[in-house]
Amino acid sequence: MIRFDNSYARLPNEFYARVAPTPVASPHLLALNTDVARRLGLSPEWLRSSAGVEVLAGNRVPEGAEPLAQAYAGHQFGGFVPQLGDGRAVLLGEVIAPDGARFDIQLKGSGQTPFSRRGDGRAWMGPVLREYIVSEFMAAMGVPTTRALAAVATGETVWREHGLPGAVLTRVAASHIRVGTFQYFAVRGQDEALAALTDHVISRHYPTADGPLSFLEQVVARQAETVAQWMALGFIHGVMNTDNMAVSGETIDYGPCAFMDVYHPDTVFSSIDRAGRYAWAQQPQMAVWNLAQLATCLIPLMGERETAIELATKAVHGFAPLYQDAWLRRFGAKLGLTGKADVQPLVENLLSLMARQRADFTRVFAGLADGSARLEFPDPAPFDDWTRRWQAHSPDTNVMKHANPTRIPRNHRIEEVIAAAVADDLAPFERLFAAVTHPHDKRNEWDDLAAAPQPQEVVQQTFCGT
Fold first, then answer.
1. How confident is the model at residue 338 (pLDDT cuts 50, 70, 90)?
2. 243: annotated active-site residue
């Protein structure tokens, strides 16, 4: 039923701990992503069956899987932790899709592992449904991201501040290898393991790289594109720790993530980011910081130390022009001005105006194509002046419509979905999921999901962890 080829499990034992998922009491399917299932060559009908749900819940390990928890370290809000690892997730194995592509299948919330520290290894339903919705919206917008295959309720209670319904997310990724995976071996001085890891990642993700430096340069380029896409959607990751940056370039670990409603560059949603380290406007700088940590890990593999430091530094500094180019392309498309030289001042002027008047990020850009953006400004006169300058460049409406979603997974809507699901009502989840995975469709029945929150609906913070 599932074709596995577990290359990560063939790496030395120090890369992981072999551990099976912990069975749950009474699993039942909350959601199944048939598009992802078919991409993997899996039968949606089988996944919905009792046998399939048992696999998705972690009650049954499928033939060919070699379940394990990956080891990694990481800088968390700037402070280094030498051992983290998968404390509430188990990698079942690597699936070979019909086209030959390789994907990790991971169960998130599947019980304790040797890396759990004092955690219970479980997840509750809220963060599982949040990641399911947000990651699939990102995929619909073309952002490199992990995918959600399924969400399964466990029939068990997870204890946080109080008892909450448990769930398991089946997450699909090109891989789950992080900057922190490299740090785990670098801090221990295990150069042979670092070399093995580098060779593995090059083989899996960067086959044109001809060594550690070329690999670093290509990771930098992918991250520049990914972060520019985040910025263009008003997305705030929330925890850009080095253990949450995938070297594949995919967006990973949707914890206290959120999309801006009212625009301001200093917007933060994470309840634990009190200093604003991972605010919207800080994300490019934090990506560079993380990439510098990766570069530091690779230096021992790059020959003479002083030369290696110089070359690695140059590679990391390459992020800025690559990001600037990606930013101009993304925001230029949002204005319908692809290939135009004066995109930057127009975008920056519009963003400044939006910040001053507390305009909604998504609705302003979506409304440029049909003229409704003006309604987002309490004092429209400055926007009218900006519009005259912008329209002088003959923007392309079709380009704008493709670049600007009509709907995003807004915080207050996700919270409504979670509250309803806890009460055994999945209809709001299914409706929001359908709407945000078709973000450009004009359907009257979804108009309310495109609306900005009322003052009493605004969600100021999201919370880390599952």
1. confident
2. yes
The set of residues, in sequence order, having a beta carbon less than 8 Å from that of 264 and lying 6+ positions away, is: 280, 355, 358
Give tens-digit pLDDT for 235-273.
999 999 999 999 999 999 998 999 999 999 999 988 888
Cα–Cα distance for residue pair 461/453, rounded to 1 Å: 14
- Which whole-number Å values give the CA distances from 411 to 36, 150, 305, in the listed order? 24, 21, 47
Report pLDDT digits (tens) over 414-461: 999 999 999 999 999 999 999 999 999 888 889 999 999 988 888 877
Evaluate whether 327 touches 347 at the Cβ level (below 8 Å): no
Which two three-digit tokens encode residue 21?
A: 């998922």
HEC secondary structure over the chain: CCCECCCHHHCCHHHEEECCCCCCCCCEEEEECHHHHHHCCCCHHHHHCHHHHHHHHCCCCCCCCCCEEECCCEEECCEEECCCCCCCEEEEEEEECCCCCEEEEEEECECCCCCCCCCCCEEEHHHHHHHHHHHHHHHHCCCCECEEEEEEEEEEEEECCCEEEEEEEEEEECCCCEHHHHHHHHCCCCHHHHHHHHHHHHHHHCCCCCCHHHHHHHHHHHHHHHHHHHHHHCEECCCCCHHHCECCCCECCCCCCEECCECCCCCCCECCCCCCCCCHHHHHHHHHHHHHHHHHHHHHHCCCHHHHHHHHHHHHHCHHHHHHHHHHHHHHHHCCCCCCCCHHHHHHHHHHHHHHHCCEHHHHHHHCCCCHHHHHCCCCHHHHHHHHHHHCCCCCHHHHHHHCCCCCCCHHHHHHHHHHHHCCCCHHHHHHHHHHCCCCCCCHHHHHHHCCCCHHHCCCCECCCC
Residues 6+ apart with CB under 8 A from 338: 329, 332, 396, 399
CA angle centred on 220, ends 276 and 266, rounded to 5°: 15
How far apart CA 237 and CA 245 sit, in angstroms, is 10
Catalytic-role residue among 86, 120, 199, 243:
243
Region label for 198, one of left (φ > 0), alpha (ψ between -120 and 50) or beta (otherwise): alpha
Amino acid at 151: A
Which of 267, 285, 293, 294 shows the shortest CA–CA distance to 323?
A: 285
Reported pTM? 0.96
